[in-house]
Design brief:
About 50% of the residues are buried. The chain has one domain: 3-Layer(aba) Sandwich (Alkaline Phosphatase, subunit A), CATH 3.40.720.10. It has about 450 residues and is α/β, with parallel strands linked by helices.
């Protein structure tokens, strides 16, 4: 019997039927309060809200760092990036040593070994030399930019510019520089849809890393008319335009999944909180209400983010889940869904039995953070935090908050509960004892405690 292309495709699909596709969508510096499902009203976000409603919205979803690169390193490895010295953005130092350490396996390595086609589309920010390139770290396909920030409005005749923190008109396909016109949010979505369609016959893992809503706050012409006239601040108008573009993109992706790829496990979260305070940390006007703090701080506004998990038929739709979860949980959850082999040393937890109601109790006994001099630990409803006032550059000392009663971290209970402060600070010290010193430091605008000694450069 002759095997036609159609029958071969059907056979392949049946062989991989039990393995879901896995899609991780990360927004960049998204304000907690700016999406409709969290009360945002300045612009509608119907597609992001629909994605939240299609699965489980984790009301206490955290990332493992309040800053772009270490947060992403945590998700990629399932470990706090402080375990392997990736505490700050890799902008300053020896190129060969900057980025996700080469001895760390990524979720792309794991999924590739499980038979998945793997791709990264968008922002990488885990190093920019050959050894740290995405295609050296488990991704079959790559389309995007290598550093922390990039312009949105591309011009194919523009002179590409590279800086270790921000590049301009330097989008790569694989390892080859592209010369493109267009809007990055749209281009990344086009590429994502192309990757998905090319791999209908086998399971795929896609890390879709939009640079929206990070600076620069560029406004695409097609979005101008949708920004409310009542918003007059130019920075805020730029931010809202990026959010509108991001929501449109999510709509295109989810429509394709619903139509043709229903067996897809989807994660959506931001890499850290919005950056709503000048002049630090790529100020973008992101609003984190009712959370206190911003990107770059261990207050809730820096580390607590929109966090949704959707898998039609496997996870309930329209559910909220209140126990604390972490982006560290993405890798072990994907491994459980795909039956991929879990790497050693992973700190995250398989969320599936918790989200579908099979397992009671919180996934984590505690979650902890370190970012330079800042630190935090959460156990149950209690959070102990030592944060930095970014404008005054002063340290708070340990503060204790009951997050169930005081989500905005306004009432410090440390003086009233010294035994709990001692217990949690000791737990943080135990957790921190397994961390290592940072392998590099950020620039003065990133970490005021670590002056830069130079900025890495790269030839085009």
């Amino acid at each position: 019997m002759k095997l036609t292309l159609a029958s071969f495709t059907l056979l392949c699909c049946s062989l991989f039927a039990t393995q879901p596709n896995v899609l991780v969508i990360i927004a960049d510096d998204l304000g907690y309060a700016d999406i409709g499902v969290h009360g945002g009203k300045q612009v509608p976000t119907p597609h992001i809200d629909a994605l939240a409603a299609s699965g489980v919205r984790c009301t206490n979803g955290y990332v493992s760092a309040p800053y772009c690169s270490p947060s992403r390193a945590g998700f990629l490895t399932g470990k706090a990036a402080t375990r392997f010295g990736h505490e700050f953005n890799p902008h300053v130092g020896d190129e060969a040593k900057l980025g996700l350490p080469l001895d760390q396996r990524t979720i792309a390595n794991v999924m590739h070994d499980a038979g998945y086609a793997t791709a990264l589309i968008g922002k990488w920010h885990q190093g920019f030399d050959e050894a740290h390139h995405p295609q050296s770290r488990g991704f079959d396909d790559y389309f995007g930019f290598l550093v922390g920030g990039h312009n949105f409005l591309l011009h194919k005749d523009a002179e590409p510019e590279f800086g270790s923190a921000h590049s301009h008109d330097m989008i790569y396909r694989g390892r080859e520089l592209q010369h493109l016109d267009g809007y990055t949010t749209d281009l990344f979505t086009d590429e994502a849809l192309g990757f998905i369609s090319r791999h209908a016959a086998k399971p795929w893992f896609l890390y879709l890393a939009y640079n929206a809503v990070h600076t620069p706050l560029e406004i695409a012409e097609k979005l101008k008319s949708r920004i409310p006239a009542s918003v007059t601040d130019e920075n805020r108008r730029g931010y809202l335009s990026l959010l509108l573009g991001l929501d449109d993109a999510i709509g295109r992706i989810t429509a394709e999944l619903q139509a043709n790829h229903p067996n897809t496990l989807v994660f959506f979260f931001s890499d850290n909180g919005g950056s709503g305070r000048k002049p630090f940390f790529a100020y973008n006007t992101g609003m984190n209400t009712p959370l206190r703090g911003d990107k770059g701080q261990t207050l809730e506004g820096g580390i607590r983010v929109p966090f949704f998990v959707s898998w039609p038929g496997k996870l309930p739709a329209g559910k909220t889940y209140d126990p604390a979860v972490s982006a560290l949980d993405v890798l072990p959850t994907a491994c459980a869904a795909s039956e991929a082999k879990l790497p050693e040393g992973v700190e995250g937890i398989n969320l599936l039995p918790h989200l579908n109601g099979e397992k009671a109790g919180a996934p984590h006994d505690l979650l902890a953070w370190r970012f330079g001099p800042q630190k935090a630990i959460r156990r149950g409803k209690w959070k102990l935090v030592d944060y930095r006032d970014m404008e005054a550059k002063t340290q708070s000392g340990w503060r204790l908050y009951d997050l169930e009663a005081d989500i905005g971290e306004t009432r410090d209970l440390a003086a009233k509960k010294p035994e709990l402060v001692a217990e949690l600070s000791n737990a943080w010290n135990d957790w921190n004892a397994r961390n290592m010193a940072p392998k590099w430091h950020g620039s003065p605008n990133e970490d005021p405690t670590a002056p830069a000694k130079g900025v890495a450069k790269k030839k085009k």
